[in-house]
From TrEMBL:
<keyword id="KW-0560">Oxidoreductase</keyword>
<dbReference type="InterPro" id="IPR002347">
    <property type="entry name" value="SDR_fam"/>
</dbReference>
<protein>
    <submittedName>
        <fullName>SDR family oxidoreductase</fullName>
    </submittedName>
</protein>
<dbReference type="Pfam" id="PF13561">
    <property type="entry name" value="adh_short_C2"/>
</dbReference>
<dbReference type="InterPro" id="IPR036291">
    <property type="entry name" value="NAD(P)-bd_dom_sf"/>
</dbReference>
<comment type="similarity">
    <text>Belongs to the short-chain dehydrogenases/reductases (SDR) family.</text>
</comment>
Length: 253
């Protein structure tokens, strides 16, 4: 049975991926900055999958956290086949009153989206549990491909942080770099750039968003899981360094 690590496994997309992969028969390890295994199982009624799920703390803003996370994997004798980099923090997406982003938040978002995942990959690959790793997936965004759309927001300067798009673009290039650098170890590295996903947006936002996509709607949470399933499958065995766009057509206009 294959084992998959999902960073940010308790968030909007991470939770859906966790539920899907458990039901598909995978062992899943999710990272969280606060939720423990018992809480996650109880909240999502996952008692039947208790033996296939682990929840380990991982906080990219704590210097020793990555080492502790990997030590936890080693202690549990967990050798991951795949890593899905999905962690994010709303705290790093704050914007100042003048509509600009602070240096601290710029650097923190980059640490969350680029530095942390890069370090985690290396820590696992350099450990005793890194031999089975064959698949890395980076969860990115259409804002890593195209610029933001000001008319989508009521207050563009204060609602669309520049550090988000910059980091998502960097994630797409990180995917390409890692695909080249890890190919000799038989590791595939791909990204998925999602469009807007329902879950936090109000009705007015969804109405504005629908005008920018041929499908005339945001993605639902169920639509984010099957593309990941495809990249994990043998059907994608010939793909590496690719950015799979799942956006309802946003980026074709």
């Amino acid at each position: 049975m294959k084992t998959i690590i999902i960073t940010g496994g308790t968030g909007l997309i991470g939770k859906e991926l966790t539920l899907y992969l458990l039901k598909e028969g995978y062992n899943v390890v999710i990272s969280s900055r606060g939720t423990n295994k018992e809480e996650f199982i109880s909240a999502n009624q996952l008692q039947e999958y208790e033996g296939n799920l682990e929840v380990l703390e991982l906080d990219y803003f704590k210097n020793s956290s990555i080492n502790s996370f990997v030590e936890g994997l080693v202690r549990l004798n967990i050798c991951p086949d795949s890593i899905i980099h999905n962690a994010r923090s709303l705290d790093t997406l704050k914007i100042e009153e003048n509509g600009q982003s602070s240096v601290e938040n710029l650097l923190s978002e980059f640490r969350m989206g680029i530095v942390g995942p890069y370090e985690l990959n290396n820590s696992i690959l350099n450990s005793s549990i890194g031999n089975k790793l064959k698949n890395i997936i980076v969860i990115s965004s259409i804002y890593g491909i195209v610029g933001p759309t000001p008319s989508l927001y009521k207050d563009f300067k204060r609602q669309s942080p520049i550090q988000y798009g910059i980091t998502k673009a960097a994630q797409i290039h990180l995917t390409k770099e890692l695909a080249v650098r890890l190919a000799d170890r038989g590791i595939r590295v791909n990204a998925i750039s999602y469009g807007g996903v329902e879950g936090r947006a109000d009705e007015k936002f969804k109405e504005r968003y629908s005008k920018f996509t041929p499908l005339k709607r945001m993605l639902n949470t169920k639509e984010v899981i099957k593309p990941v399933g495809f990249l994990l499958s043998d059907g994608a065995s010939g793909m590496t360094g690719h950015n799979l766009i799942v956006d309802g057509g946003w980026t074709i206009w």
